[in-house]
Structures are given as C-alpha cells and as structure tokens.
Amino acid sequence: MSDEFELDTDDLARRMKGAIANLRTELASLRTGRASGSMLEPVMVEAYGQMTPINQVGTVNVPEPRMVTINVWDKALVGKVEKAIRESGLGINPQLNGTIIMLPIPELNEERRRELTKVAGQYAESARVAIRNLRRDGMDQIKKAKADGMSEDDQKFWETAVQDITDEHIKLIDETLETKQAEIMQV
C-alpha cells in the first residue's frame, strides 16, 4: 500500500490558484482612484425579469483615467442600470447622456484610501485561510496514508511538497495585496 500513495499536488496547486484568482477578482472590484471596467462586475441589473451583470446589458468602456462609460443597448434599461449603480454602494454618481451612462470617478480622500487598504487586507486574509484549509486537506491525506503504512521518509517528502506549494501561494497573495495597497494609496 505504501508504494501506491501519490498526492495529487497538481490538483492542490490548481485549487490554491483558484483561491488566488478569487482574491484578484475581489481586489479588482475595489475602487482605487482610477477608472476600471472591472469595478462594475459586482453590480447586477434587473433586466428582462432576472438579475444580469452590467456587461451583459451594455458595453463598458474606460475612455479616460477618471471616467467609465456604459453604452446601454436597450433604451428601456437605461434607468434600471443607472439605479443599480446608484444603489451599488460604489459611491459613484452616474450621469446620463442618451443611452450612454457616464461614471466620473472622484478622487479618494486619505481616510477612504486607508479603509480600502483594510478591506483589501481582509480579502487577502480570506484567501490565506482558503490556502491553509487546502494545505490541511493535503496533510490529512498524508496522515491517512501514514496510518495505512507509508514510510516516514515518504511522509516527510509529501509534507515538504505540500508546504512548499502552500508557501509559494501565500507569497503570491502577499505580493498581490502589496501591489493593490500601493495602487490604492497612490494619489
């Protein structure tokens, strides 16, 4: 039995990459001082009887560093898109220009920047917890195999492999957070 054990480290790494991808999505939705189409991803619009992402009811563009525009395809939805943005909590006041909704991105004050860096830190900590949970799952598989007769050398080898993958992904999270915090604090 001991020779047959092989931990699927590729699957473990893939799942950890998923946690990092989720972190990047969450961080992209945080408003920095610059305009970004991804900041509208969490905003849903009631369209045709169901909740729909904004990018499925219009074209989202970033023509200037401090402006996002949405060219709504169906004139009947312009008011609903505007209302969804106002109620989203992004702190942006939409301006109508026919079927185009313009979103001027205001400067962030120092206090708001600090709040956003704390939120980014919370997102990163959630990602770290997800990585640690995956590490624990891997270690549990190794312990089970040890109970089934795996040698101590094999156990140490697999534990080291899991720890190396974990360390690599935690480092990636830290680098991603550092980059985002620098972006938020940039005036």
The best one-word shape is elongated
| Residue share in β-strands | 15-25%
- Percent range of helical residues: 40-55%
The tally of strands reads 6
Q: In angstroms, what is the radius of gyration?
A: 22 Å
Structure characterization notes:
The protein has 187 residues and is of the alpha+beta class. It has four helices and six strands. A four-stranded antiparallel sheet has the order 3-4-6-5, with helices on one face. Helix 3 packs antiparallel against helix 4. It is elongated and about 70 Å long.
SSE layout and pairing:
Layout: H1 9-28, E1 44-47, E2 50-53, E3 58-64, E4 67-72, H2 78-86, E5 95-97, E6 100-104, H3 110-147, H4 152-185
Q: What are the main properties of this structure?
A:
four-stranded antiparallel sheet, 54% helix, 187 residues, alpha+beta, two-stranded antiparallel ribbon
Give the structure's gist in a few sentences.
This protein is of the alpha+beta class. The chain has 4 helices and 6 strands; from the N terminus they run H-E-E-E-E-H-E-E-H-H.
